[in-house]
Amino acid sequence: MKAFTVQKEDDGRRLDKWIKSHVPALNNALVQKFLRLKRIKRNGKPAHADDRLMAGDELNFYIEDEFFAPVQKKDKLLDKFIYSVNIVYEDENILLLDKKPGLLCHPDENEKVNTLLTHARAYLYQKGEMKDGGFQPVLVNRIDRFTGGIVICAKTEEAMHILSDKIRTHEIEKAYLCLAEGRIQPPGGTLKGYIVKTPGKSRVRVSKTQVPSGQYAETIYKTLSFDKGRSLVECVLVTGRTHQIRAQLSDIGHPLWGDTAYGAKPDGERHYQALYSYKITFRFATDAGALSYLNNKSMYVKNVPFARNFRGWTGE
Q1: β-pair partners for 141
Q2: Which of 69, 194, 242, 292 could anchor a disulfide with 214, C-beta 3.0 to 4.6 Å?
Q3: Contact, 24 vs 36, CB < 8 A?
Q4: d(CA 143, CA 130)
């Protein structure tokens, strides 16, 4: 049983209107049912829908407590948004998503809604894993709009802090798959240099020597196969700089297929760089708390579009 005292601001209000605003879980049909069964009383007597309340009236509801639980307000966007997610891995703490090229990770000045973040949150909201006023899942890493691959979504605040720390200390290894023009020689090695941003331009350049505005960049690469004038290459980031793989491969004369911004030949078959963040490996060197179970585990995307029919590619 729940008891309420009518306040001064509700003096003169109809009982059914009062119930609608104070006990929103009770719809009109339920209100009529409980009134008929005399399970709603006013000052100890059976109440009626059209009763005019007076300040100080005592209202008693002889119904289940569940009707008085706070009603979660629906997020209109997330509740109706038609999401599309490609899940690589999911548990109670994290969600690994395969982002397709062309989709933004986060909103920008031109696109506010159709982003990977919205798709991820709508997916979790509609399956009941997001609560009103609770933690809002976040993407802890990001990749360029026209690069595809794995993006990590933290489903809890604890996971967010752990993952952000592990990314900062390079304890999450990210491997990219790409198609580069020509045959790379030697077929494997390490690319080192400094990434230099040019004010007002979206592309960067590579400097072999340290310059004031340069950021050290290191990429380990390995050629997996060669076919039709292109090399299928795996690149593992030691550092994570803007356009690092694109700029460094272009710098040694092997721009990515379709990457005309970095010197690739125009190709009507491809309009943006053949680059995919296809695998991550958790290599925790320090305590990972609630995520310790992920240590030494690798997750990867098997269906990388530009590699699907490439000679020698097995999908692993």
Answers
A1: none
A2: 194
A3: no
A4: 24
Q: Is the peptide bond before 186 cis (omega within 30 degrees of 0)?
A: yes
Question: Which residue matches tokens 């007002």?
Answer: 200
Among candidates 68, 161, 77, which has minimal Cα distance to 117? 77
Contacts of 23 (CB under 8 A, 6+ apart): 61, 67, 68
Is the Cβ–Cβ distance between 207 and 214 less than 8 Å? yes
pLDDT at 25 over 90: no
Confidence of residue 140 (pLDDT cuts 50, 70, 90): very high
Token pair 């305590």: residue: 287
Strands (E), the chain: 2-5, 40-42, 45-46, 58-61, 87-90, 94-99, 138-139, 148-154, 172-181, 188-197, 204-207, 215-227, 230-237, 275-282, 298-300
| Rounded Cα gap, residues 113 and 259, in angstroms | 27
Question: What tokens were used for 34?
Answer: 């409980």
DSSP-derived 3-state class of residue 270: strand
CA 303 – CA 86 distance, rounded (Å): 11
Tell me the three state secondary structure of residue 289.
helix
Confidence category of residue 316, pLDDT binned at 50, 70, 90: low
Q: What angle do CA 78, 142, 308 make, to 5 degrees?
A: 95
CA atoms of 175 and 191, how far apart (whole Å): 14
Model's pTM, two decimal places?
0.76
For residues 262 and 253, what is the distance between their CA atoms, to the nearest angstrom? 10
